[in-house]
Design a protein that fits this description.
single chain, 161 residues
Length: 161
C-alpha cells in the first residue's frame, strides 16, 4: 500500500496581488452577474427553445462543416447553465462576504458602490462623506471581501468551461 501524502492547509490563507485583482473584478461585475441570474431564471428556458427553433444554433463553433441545430442548442444552453451556476456561486459568496464586514460605514460603501452600482461621486454624496473617505472605506471593504473569498476558495476557482 502506498504512502498517503497530505498537503499542508493554511487556516487563514493569504491573498496574493492577483487574488486582490480578481476580487475587485468580481465586485465590479457583481451587478451584471446578479442581472444575468435573474434573467436566466426568468427566461432561460424560453431562450433555449428560441435557440432550437432559430438560427443562433446553426453553427456554434467556427470549424464546423455542418451543424446539428438541436445538439448545438443544447451546447449553448449548457454553457449558459454553467455560467449561471458560476455566477450564482460568486454572487452568493460576495453577499456572504459583505455581511461579514464589521464596520457599518465600510459595508454601506460597498453596498452603495458595487451592489447598487452608484458612481463614486454620487455614492460619496449619498453616504455624506468625502471622496477620499469613500475610497478608503471601499479599499477596506475590498480587502475584507477579498480575504473572505480567498478563505472560502472562491478566488481559486477555475473560471473556464
Amino acid at each position: 500500500m502506498g504512502e498517503i501524502s497530505y498537503e499542508q492547509i493554511e487556516l487563514f490563507p493569504s491573498k496574493t496581488g492577483s487574488d486582490s485583482d480578481r476580487a475587485i473584478i468580481l465586485l465590479e461585475q457583481f451587478g451584471f452577474m446578479k442581472r444575468f441570474i435573474e434573467e436566466f431564471e426568468a427566461h432561460g428556458e424560453l431562450l433555449h427553445l428560441t435557440d432550437i427553433e432559430g438560427e443562433r444554433a446553426r453553427k456554434v463553433f467556427q470549424d464546423e462543416t455542418r451543424a446539428d441545430k438541436t445538439a448545438n442548442a443544447v451546447v449553448l444552453h449548457e454553457i449558459r447553465k454553467w455560467r449561471y451556476n458560476v455566477f450564482k456561486c460568486a454572487v452568493t459568496s460576495i453577499e456572504m462576504a459583505h455581511r461579514m464586514i464589521r464596520d457599518e460605514e465600510v459595508r454601506d460603501a460597498i453596498e452603495c458602490r458595487y451592489f447598487r452600482e452608484v458612481p463614486v461621486m454620487r455614492a460619496a454624496q449619498e453616504l455624506r462623506m468625502s471622496k477620499g473617505t469613500l475610497r478608503r472605506r471601499l479599499e477596506s471593504g475590498e480587502e475584507s471581501i477579498g480575504n473572505y473569498l480567498k478563505l472560502i476558495g472562491e478566488l481559486d476557482r477555475d473560471w473556464t468551461f
